Amino acid sequence: MMSNLINILAKIESLKAALADLEPMAKNDAERLWRKFRLEWNYNSNHIEGNTLTYTETALYLDRGKTTGDHNIREYEEMSAHNLAVEMVKEWAIEGSRPLTQADVCHLNRIILVKPFWKNTVLLNGEVGSRRQIIPGEFKTHPNHVLLENGEIFKYAEPEEVQQKMQELLDWYRGEAADLPPLVVTAILHYRLVRIHPFDDGNGRVCRLLLNYHLLKNDYPPVIIKTADKKNYLTALQKADAGDEESFVVYVGEQLVWSLELAIAAGKGESIEEKDDWMKKVSLLKKKVEAKKKTEEKSEEDKIAVTENWIKHNFPLIIDKFETTFQPFKEMYKESKFTISVRSNVNNNKVIDFFPKDFMEKISIGLKEKKVGKQIYFVYKFSEFIQYTYQTLNYNATINISFRNNRVLISTALNNWDEIDKSIYENLTSEDLEIINQLGQILFQKIDDFVSKLS
Q1: Does a structural domain hold residue 28?
Q2: Do 340 and 202 share a structural domain?
Q3: Which of 87, 158, 284, 444 has the most beta carbons within 10 angstroms of its beta carbon?
Q4: What CA–CA distance (Å, rounded) separates 217 from 349?
């Protein structure tokens, strides 16, 4: 077996040297290579764990934020979160000398699991047990041993052992591992973390993130454990369980060869499309053609539920941003009013104003009874500037939110601000909320100019 390891290490170093000869890689080649790795990594690592987004749906979502098919919103959230973790691991690797800590490992788990959720436990006799809340980023509080097909119980670390075993693993990684080839280190790091199984959920994805963290840190491309090769992946892990860690190292090395050869092709300006990629693209084209039909086939109740879910998550963020941004101006005006306006579907398109709290309480009823339209305005109105009552300096800070075919469009009346276009399965970011901050800047400038002219 040792000869297999020696051979794979030699092949990897030869390919790495060939890749180094192609550096620096042309910018467009480096970008298309990373897009390929990012797609493969996100799709395969999530799919192995049960995410049902297809390869083409994953590509469409990551590249354009487009959603297709009938999937639970959590699957899109998990894909976005895992992509964020991939980019974070890449940044850590670029930093090079930063130490890897238990807090880092917990942070990765916290990112990929998105938010707390409830999960049915599975007893060792195969029966479904009680429901347990999964807290992202926290070490397990209950055993997560598994029952093998042969009837034996495979034991991971006990909950009370996790912290010590994690520290021992990281001490090994920062010490003894420094003298070993990167392939050996990254494979053993992955395997030993699997054996600890420190979290209630997300262990496999975290293991593969750290596998690639060490490779990227040492200037290797990431390894992709493909969902189509899951059986061989698990077999290699089982051999390591039986004491043959070298088999798993060799398995990871074989996947690294694929990544290096792909990177070399990109560096030469060659195609990095796999033989069946055109078939994947045909599938993507088919999804695009069918997307509109699928949207139309969804029940009205489903569409309302998705819209309501987006509103409940994101509107409090918008409301809070408005309040924070415009609070300092309230004392400068005799009157200020913050409302959310919608057009009525049952009263000749009459505009109905709600105060934010009332709106959040009534929106569910309004959507379900089809009393409100899919266009909503946030308006912070200021009137009667207090210092110069004989002059008018009224101001309406307004954003418009429209819901159209699984998209959320956000805009203002300002000509210099592009419309924000997001999937309804994608939540607002702090960058998106800067649209409100810009409205505040405009009011500040208006007042500043006004006072300067009159003083």
Answers
A1: yes
A2: no
A3: 284
A4: 59
